[in-house]
Amino acid sequence: MKRIAPESHAEMQEQLIDAMGEEFVIRLHQRLAEHGLAGDADAERVLGAEIRSNRPIVTACRIGP
């Protein structure tokens, strides 16, 4: 989408960041750096989806005493 509609892509990225919060951005950038993929839009999409799908599990694990 970034190549086809860059303005819409940028807007959607901002909405995603707002919705997922700072934790998502930090985790995404860490994962991209681990794999040497910083700035790779396709990697951001794939790893971002993976992080989003794992988020409720991680949050649930943090709840407790």
Summary?
By secondary structure, the chain is an all-alpha fold. The chain is 78% helix and 0% strand.
Sum up the structure in keywords.
78% helix, mainly alpha, Methane Monooxygenase Hydroxylase, Chain G, domain 1, disordered C terminus, single chain
Q: How are the secondary structure elements laid out?
A:
Blueprint: H1 6-34, H2 41-62
Can you give a write-up of this model?
The protein is mostly helical. The chain has one domain: Methane Monooxygenase Hydroxylase, Chain G, domain 1 (Up-down Bundle), CATH 1.20.58. It has 2 helices and no strands. The N and C termini lie far apart (43 Å). Helix 1 crosses helix 2. The longest helix has 29 residues.
Highest CATH level, the class = Mainly Alpha
CATH architecture: Up-down Bundle
Q: Quick one: biggest sheet?
A: none
Shape: globular
Strand content: under 5%
Per DSSP E runs of 2 or more residues, the count of β-strands stands at 0
Number of domains in the coordinates? 1
Low-confidence stretches: 56-65
Q: Determine the oligomeric state from the structure.
A: single chain
What would the average pLDDT be, to the nearest integer? 75
Q: The CATH topology, please? A: Methane Monooxygenase Hydroxylase, Chain G, domain 1
Give the class from helix and strand content and strand pairing: mainly alpha
Question: How far is the first residue's CA from the last residue's CA?
Answer: 43 Å
Cα-atom radius of gyration = 13 Å
Order of helices and strands: HH
Count of helical segments? Answer: 2
Q: Give the helix proportion (percent range).
A: over 70%
